[in-house]
Amino acid sequence: MKGGWEWVGWLLVVAGWWYVNRTNNQRETRKEARSAVDAAKKDVQAIAKLAVAYFTDANSVASDEIKNSLELLEVELERLEGYASSQVMNRMSDFHEACTGADFESANRQVHGLRSEVVQGILYRRNRLIAEIERHYLSTYVTRASRL
Q1: Residue 64 banded pLDDT, cuts 50, 70, 90
Q2: By the 8 A CB rule, do 114 and 51 touch?
Q3: Residues 75, 116: contact at Cβ < 8 Å?
Q4: How far is CA 83 from CA 31, 79, 128, in A?
Q5: Residue 133 in contact with residue 44, Cβ under 8 Å?
Q6: What average pLDDT does range 51-61 have in this prediction?
Q7: What angle do CA 68, 131, 52 make, to 5 degrees?
Q8: Reported pTM
Q9: How far is CA 65 from CA 44, 104, 114, in A?
Q10: Domain ranges of the chain
């Protein structure tokens, strides 16, 4: 190329490199977030299972495991971008309350049936938290990627 147009080729190379790098970084971020979301959803299910077992079995001593698991789940969810300002935090609070509410760790803890309000509350809040985690992932990571 003559006449000073050589810089156009270099400009296109740099712009192409920048675009490819940006989309690759976004894809990696989405993959990491997807992995964290999937792990969190599994943890929610496991905690709900523990909580249901705790409230339906008089001999269950899983209260410490439930509390510890809830704390670890909170740490995992905090890794998600925008967690603190999202509905996920509210749903997490509701789920935590359902799993540790009622007569949790009470000396006079009652055994509840699978259809009891306590157990159904745990399951309902589990489902709401899982749905909100997924909604947060889609609105934060997937929608942004489609704006390219």
Answers
A1: very high
A2: no
A3: no
A4: 17, 8, 15
A5: yes
A6: 94
A7: 45
A8: 0.85
A9: 13, 13, 20
A10: 34-145
**Euclidean distance between the first and the last CA atom of the chain, given in angstroms as a whole number:** 32
16: which 2 tokens?
């192409």
Q: Give the chain as a 3 state SS string.
A: CCCCCHHHHHHHHHHHHHHHHHHHHHHHHHHHHHHHHHHHHHHHHHHHHHHHHHHHCCCCCCHHHHHHHHHHHHHHHHCCCCHHHCHHHHHHHHHHHHHHCCCCCCCCCCCCCCCCHHHHHHHHHHHHHHHHHHHHHHHHHHHHHCCC
**pLDDT, tens digit, 9 for 90 and up, residues 115-134:** 999 999 999 999 999 999 99
